[in-house]
Amino acid sequence: MSDANKNNAPPLVRHFRQILLWPLQVMHARVREPHISKYWELLDAMGEQSPWREVEDEFGDPDDFQERHYKEFITFLPYVQRFLYGEGTGREAQTGYGKSPIRVYRRRDIAKMRAVLDEQSPPVVFEVAHVDLYFFYDIDIIILAVEFYANDLPLPLAQEALFKLGRAYPAFWEAGGQGGQCPRRVEWLAATGETLAASDYENRRKYLNFVCQHRSPNVAAHWDYLLQPLVLYHSDREGMIRFRQIEYHRMPLLAYLSFDDPSALTRGDFARLALITRSGPSDTLPYSEQELIDFEQRYCYDKFWNPTNPALGSRYLCCGHAFVMIGKAGDRFFADADTGLLGQFRHQYFLVNLIAHFHKATLMLFSEWLVTAISQLDIRDVDSVKTFKREIRRIFETFLRFTHRYWFHEVSNQAQAKDLFRMLTGHLETDRIYRDVSEAVKEMNQYLDSDGLRRQANTVVRLTVVTTLGLIATVSTGFLGMNIFDETGQPGWVKALILAVVLIPSILLVFYGVAKSKVLSDFLEALADERLTLRDKLGVLFKVWRK
User: Fold this and answer.
1) In contact, 302 and 251? CB cutoff 8 Å
2) How far apart are CA 299 and CA 133, in angstroms?
3) What's the rounded Cα separation, in Å, for the pair 452 and 454?
4) Which residues on adjacent β-strands are paired with residue 173?
5) pLDDT tens across 137-147, in order?
6) What are the tens digits of pLDDT across the range 312-367?
């Protein structure tokens, strides 16, 4: 290759690693089932029929506990440590936090991913490191995490992989029938090379028919296969756990890219990597200059980046949707998989992103729950009102547990992790969404409280009216303890008949008084109002018999 061609060749990504995070809402197949706190138990109950197996954490045998695990643990603040790892098995844990509310399940049958990104590019085979499913106690959110990697990819190909691979379904179709902005084909491969599942982005009619019938988007076949035995909410297949999308069809991602010389990347290259746009000429920007005038301030974390200083060769990019680490392949600290930034990317920074996206997905779930509850409320239907009250109270209780168990403004005191979490949540706007949802939940709960007080007040009014009427009868018939009629000498059946003759009209009078208590209470208020004439007061009384 000539020097001219070498100079024009795009930079090589010596090591490319991507982690897709796909937050989903889960629900029981029988919608009338009570709320489930531990969805993973349904997977366990399937036994060998489920390809997912629970992942044991690193806190088992102390002899197997590595320095990498230790560094990961101490990155986080104590309350985040308890959330991620739970507490130990000692005496204190019996009354403390207990086990972590997170359960991780992994499928091990998928070894590789073969992707054809476009018509011009050859197939790329990525090694699949992990396919994990994260469950959270008492929250109907799961997060699918898929980690894959490859070496020596040209930068444009890496940009296309970042741009296209995390697509749940096509946004549109190109003239040739291919899914717009999607790979031409994606295949999950077994260790033997056998194709386990393939994408169907080009099946335009499948997606159109599904949306028309269910008013909900379908998902590509290879993603549907990956989540089995979980099934799509509107799917005709049987499944104890159903899922539905809760965010945009582009999955959030983390990416790690190492170069021989990262300083050779242009501003346009960094912008495309930070904002996850499709590839383009390095000497151009993906958007207008005006749009990217503050690109470095908004999307770049340059604490350890200086192109003129070889010791500062790591750059972090974040737009909320994506978190990207860029550095030098020859730098041992950046490339080391155990103690370097590659290890931190796969563990500490993965968990930082997992927490942030879990927060956003859960808050969006609460918002969805509130909308569903209020849309199904019919104040003329007693059963609907009762169902609404139960649902709002459940949401309020769950939101309280979420706030005290899962919600964090900060996850670490280490400057880098602290700054990047703040940068990530700032782009995701989770603080604003939390405030909006918190206010909505509190408003709903206040409505229930005020409605309960109103009902109690109405009950007190009715009791007051009935007590007032009863007081008149009691004084009239029991003055000085005398009986109006002396029937002590009558036979028992006569006394029973007299009791019935008195009891039945009394019951009917009480019921009538309760039925007319609203108007009678208005009459009592009018009777106490000295400004009204006798005629006005009687007019209020006569309303009792008006329709």
Assistant:
1) no
2) 29
3) 5
4) 179
5) 989 999 999 99
6) 889 999 999 999 999 999 888 899 888 889 999 999 999 999 999 999 999 999 99
Indicate the pairing of strand 102-106 with strand 195-198: unpaired
Fill in the DSSP letter of residue 173: B
Q: Is 282 left (phi over 0), alpha (psi -120 to 50) or beta?
A: alpha
Which of 188, 22, 169, 51 has the alpha carbon at shortest distance from 114?
Answer: 188
Q: Alpha carbon 315 to chain centroid distance?
A: 30
Distances (CA, A) of 369 to 51, 105, 375, 396, 450: 30, 26, 10, 11, 21
Distance CA 227, CA 243 (A): 9
Cα–Cα dist 16/148, whole Å = 8
E strands, 76-232, where? 102-106, 112-116, 124-136, 139-154, 185-189, 195-198, 231-232
Which tokens in the block code for residue 384? 């609907």
Confirm if 77 and 410 have CB atoms less than 8 A apart: yes
Beta-strand ranges (E) seen in 29-123 are 53-54, 102-106, 112-116
Whether 104 contacts 358, CB under 8 Å: no
Burial class (CB in 10 A: 0-12, 13-18, 19+), 505: exposed
Q: 407 phi and psi, to 5 degrees?
A: -90, 125
CA–CA gap between residue 270 and residue 181 (Å, rounded): 20
Q: Which string of DSSP letters, residue by residue, matches 468-493?
A: HHHHHHHHHHHGGG--SS--TTS-HH
**Structure-block tokens of residue 306:** 């200086």
Sequence letter at residue 53? R
**pLDDT score of 396:** 86
Bridge pairing between strands 231-232 and 139-154: unpaired
Assess contact for 241 and 190: CB atoms under 8 A.
no
Q: Classify burial at 79, counting beta carbons within 10 Å of its beta carbon; exposed 0-12, middle 13-18, buried 19 or more.
A: middle
Nearest Cα residue to 46 out of 242, 244, 240: 240
State residue 65's pLDDT score. Answer: 73
pLDDT at residue 258, as a whole number: 96
Q: Which long-range contacts (CB under 8 A, 24 or more apart) does 193-196 make?
A: 193/112, 195/114, 196/109, 196/110, 196/225
